[in-house]
Write a structure and sequence with these properties.
Radius of gyration: 20 Å
Number of helices: 8
Largest sheet: 8 strands, mixed
Order of helices and strands: EHEEHEHHEEEHEEHEEEEEHEEH
Distance between the termini: 25 Å
Structural class: alpha/beta
Shape: globular
Helix content: 10-25%
Strand content: 25-35%
Length: 268
């Protein structure tokens, strides 16, 4: 199944980084975050990607055009220039980078990729959020309900430390996130081809009219993921993800340790 990676936005809240490169190219643990997202899909055997580029699209094109040099060790005969590649890390990705316009919004970017998609359902996600989401379980859930669209619902990470209270008395300051029945759009969508009928305006964000209309038409279901998920919206987020990369296996790749995902349908 093909996966569209939305990678064309300005990333204004990361302006310190994105003045020179697009947001998906901001590095986490020494690699662009877009490749961290691709790792998640690749773990489950989904390696056919279409990058919906826009802002500074040339940076993305150049990166993937030269990825064979990044992902392999090289031996060069300096006289002839002949080069032999020896795989240094598993990959096997097929990546199309398509310029969908510098100011196009997310639903328009998907619409502009219609001719690049094979028949059948496809996946879409943002290029700046990572989570240990069981992609194959997500697909099975999508197939089970027979609707046009599935969004992965996640619980937002704590942005600030919590105060633990006993009545009015402060017991402790903690970073622990309390589980609440609060769900947000975490990306990681599965769409049937018919969703293209909802994408009619290049300047319409996916999260506004298209998803709202699908919900009103009872065509949008949610796969609830209560494992790890974290976006990269700010410099603080980037720093947090960099710290997590110092662990032997970052939490978004610990699929065998994830909490069970509740795949009960959720009205959006």
């Amino acid at each position: 199944m093909q996966t569209i990676l939305l990678a064309g936005g300005l990333g204004s809240r990361l302006a310190e980084e994105t003045v020179a490169i697009p947001k998906p190219m901001v590095e986490v643990g020494g690699r662009p975050i877009i490749t961290r997202v691709m790792d998640i899909y690749s773990h489950f055997g989904h390696k056919d990607f279409i990058v919906a580029a826009g802002y500074k699209s040339l940076s993305l094109k150049q990166y993937f055009a030269n990825y064979h040099l990044i992902a392999n060790n090289i031996t060069v005969a300096v006289d002839s220039g002949k080069m032999d590649l020896t795989p240094a890390q598993p990959g096997g990705w097929n990546v199309s980078v398509v310029d969908t316009g510098p100011k196009t919004m997310t639903s328009g970017r998907i619409r502009r990729l219609k001719e690049w998609l094979k028949p059948g359902p496809f996946m879409v996600t943002y290029s700046d959020g990572v989570g240990n989401i069981d992609i194959n379980a997500l697909i099975e859930f999508h197939k089970s309900h027979g609707k046009l669209a599935t969004v992965t619902a996640v619980q937002p990470p704590a942005r600030f430390g919590n105060i633990e209270l006993a009545g009015d008395r402060v017991e402790a300051f903690t970073e622990k996130v309390r589980r609440r029945n609060t769900w947000i759009n975490g990306g990681y969508f599965v769409f049937e081809p018919e969703v293209m009928d909802y994408f009619v305006d290049d300047m319409e964000p996916l999260e506004q009219s298209p998803l709202t209309q699908m919900a009103q038409d009872c065509e949008l279901m949610a796969y609830k993921h209560d494992g790890f998920w974290h976006p990269m919206d700010t410099i603080r987020d980037r720093n947090t993800l960099n710290e997590l990369c110092e662990e032997e296996t970052p939490p978004w790749m610990r699929f065998n340790e994830e909490l069970p995902s509740d795949i009960t349908a959720l009205a959006i």
